């Protein structure tokens, strides 16, 4: 996605001086081992746009337990998994 073109399309009456793209480097996961390669490809593409600057931070990962939806009258069940969010949120 070309951020410059997107914002020019969304805000045609505005003059956009700079686009700041905030992200963090992702890690490979068992269900998506090529995620880091795709992200690097996208970040390299963004680096070719003169009005876009990329700012890297980091993600926080922690384990969470959440209730599952169960049929009425059935005992509550839970699932545990990893929750990822950008630092500072």
Catalogue the unreliable spans: none
Q: Globular, elongated, flat, extended or rod-shaped: what is the shape?
A: elongated
Strand content: 25-35%
Radius of gyration: 19 Å
Strand order of the largest sheet: 1-2
The oligomeric state of the chains shown is single chain
Instruction: Name the helix and strand elements from N-terminus to C-terminus, one letter apiece.
Output: HEHEEE
Structure description:
With 89 residues, the chain is α+β, with helices and mostly antiparallel strands. It has one domain. Helix content is 22%, strand content 34%. The protein contains two helices and four strands. Strands 1-2 form a two-stranded parallel ribbon. Strand 1, helix 2 (35-46) and strand 2 (52-57) form a beta-alpha-beta unit. The protein is elongated.
Features:
two-stranded parallel sheet, alpha+beta, 89 residues, two-stranded antiparallel sheet, elongated
Give the helix/strand layout.
Elements: H1 3-10, E1 19-24, H2 35-46, E2 52-57, E3 59-67, E4 78-86
Parallel strand pairs: 1-2
Antiparallel strand pairs: 3-4
Summarize the structure.
It contains two helices and four strands, in the order αβαβββ. It is of the alpha+beta class.
């Amino acid at each position: 996605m070309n951020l410059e073109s997107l914002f020019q399309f969304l805000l045609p009456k505005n003059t956009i001086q700079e686009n700041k793209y905030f992200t963090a480097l992702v890690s490979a996961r068992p269900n998506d081992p090529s995620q880091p390669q795709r992200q690097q490809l996208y970040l390299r593409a963004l680096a070719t746009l003169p009005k876009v600057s990329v700012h890297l931070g980091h993600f926080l990962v922690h384990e969470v337990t959440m209730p599952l939806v169960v049929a009425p009258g059935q005992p509550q069940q839970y699932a545990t998994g990893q929750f990822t969010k950008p630092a500072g949120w």
